[in-house]
Amino acid sequence: MRRKRIEDNDSPDRWVVSYADFITLLFALFTTLYAISVVDTQKLGKFVNSLNSALGTETLGQSGTVIPELGKPSQISERIEYELRGVVGSFSRDLNVRRDERGVIVSLGEGSIFAPGSVEIKESSLKVLAELSLILKGISNKVLIEGHTDNLPVRTSRYRSNWEISTMRAVSVLRLFIEKFGLPPERFIVAGYGKYKPLRENTTPEGRAKNRRVDIVILTDREAKML
To answer: Looking at the whole model, is its pTM more than 0.70?
Structure first.
């Protein structure tokens, strides 16, 4: 009998008892938390609608208020970005597409669009701008056209500052979209920033070339409402 009792005390399954107690305590804890919690059904419904909209799984009767960050504008921007990359990808290394919190941006480097010190658009760039205008016609987003320069002084007497030349270049792109390609003017906003929003340091020729550009910013609905 003594040998049998010793074997029972050394049983390898003794941990099961402690484990079962631990699980029971956890169950009691979560049951208590659930009992005292309050479910915000309005927020939960809003979240479900937003998730359905974002995933494209919305069905009849499920439409309702959505959370903007999860709504369809971001999906449209992804499609736009894909199409824009296809247009500019084979045209020039001076053109590129990127994204920030405002939307999708097509960056037109000075070398591909303008002659140095000029605001007249090159004939050779009309094809790619025509293709960009076709994409813009297919969407309803607001578009911000921004002109930018490097930090070097203006080298022509025609313009007094980088403010002027950056703004006039943005206006030149705007006029092309409106007057030649028939885009509605009420969708556009134009701005000139001169040297004050660089992409790179202005300490090298390569950095300055990156900063001389016109950015076409396709705004998300949320960003457009904030302007």
So the answer is: no
